[in-house]
Amino acid sequence: MTYVALKASGFSKNKVFGLGNHLDSLRFKNYMAKHFHVHVSEIHTRIIGQHGPHMVPLISSTSIGGIPIEYYSAWDYFTGYKPFDIKKTIETVKNAGNNIISKKGATEYGPAFAISNIVTTILNDERKILTVSAYLEGEIEGIDDVCLGVPVKLGIEGIEGILPIKMSENERESFVKAAEMVKKDTKKIMENLDLDSKDP
User: Any idea which residues carry the catalytic annotation?
Assistant: First the structure.
């Protein structure tokens, strides 16, 4: 959707971006905060890539109160909590929308909150780092000509910069795979819409 909007609008790439993994990241932070019984503001993590089955949690750079998450195994032991199941939590995030729709017919509140957060960030020129769908031109792992969920600095001018990401090997492989899948699907859509799929 972001790629099509970029091509059809003719706007510069810093002005066109999508919700990406912003809502996924918010949900992931919330689940982690509940597990560790800390305020959600103490959770520093994000999900990148595709909004769907190929989302990539950046566990290697996740921290709680500035402390890397791998040091929290002792926390679970001493408090009696079950160990934090990252894989299960990511599956919960992936299926969150479908689970809500099956129970109440729509998921308006989560997306509305995430969108309002993005709009507020832009209007107030807050320059927060959010994970939105942005057009890449080789900034991360050399991936280009595709829109993916990546961390960007957002302000009154839109995207002020795409931030570099240090990933583990597994994360990098998953991100590259997500890029390939999204790029493949985008190409099919662009062909069906008869839009130029080269330079924006």
Answer: 51
